[in-house]
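Tutorial, part two.
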Amino acid sequence: MKRYEVVCIVKSDLPEEDISNLIERSEKIITKGNGLIAQIDKWGKKRLAYEIDKQKEGFYFLIDFAGDGSVVNEIERNYKIDDKVLKFMTVKKEGAVTREGIDTEIAAAQAKKNEAATSPEKKITQQAEKTIAESKDSKTSVEDSARNEEQETKKEE
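Running the prediction step on this input gives:
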């Protein structure tokens, strides 16, 4: 078993029900072929880079799964004969092929995503604290230099 990603573009004017049916059909093919689904991600409607079958927009979705070559062949065969599908691309990728390994990868990706979401706030807070500290340091250094100048002028007198 190997790990694959399928990105598919379907016609944007399809009802949500048809898109869901297409995804469910792909899920059934994967599970019937003893594959494991890692993730299904609906990206939504996006403008196409170029016109495909007189369509300027398409609905994108991604299916990340582990399976055999026969599963990939069956999914691609179904997409080729379905008129609703504008384009699709299957890519072999590195990654776990067991349910435990896939769950671990998903948990790690979610933790990384959560950390990235909170890190801009942390960066802003750290920058603000640093700026405040620098301004205090520069203020005290200005005061110190002013005192030193006063002392020097008193000594000269």
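The radius of gyration is 29 Å. In part three we will examine how such features are distributed along the chain.
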